[in-house]
Amino acid sequence: MTVKFNIIFIERTIPRDSRLDELRYWCQEFQRLNLTPRYQNRSLGNLSFRLNQDEDDFMITASALEVKDSLSDDSFVIVHSYDAESSTIRASGTREPSSESVLHFGVYAARRDTNAVFHGHSGRIIRASDALGLTTTTKFEDYGSLELATSVLDVLDDQSFIVMKKHGFLSLGQTMKEAGTLAIEIYERARSCESAEKENHRA
Ligand SMILES: [Zn+2]
Question: Which residues line ion ligand 1, judged by CB < 5 Å?
Answer without folding.
Answer: 168
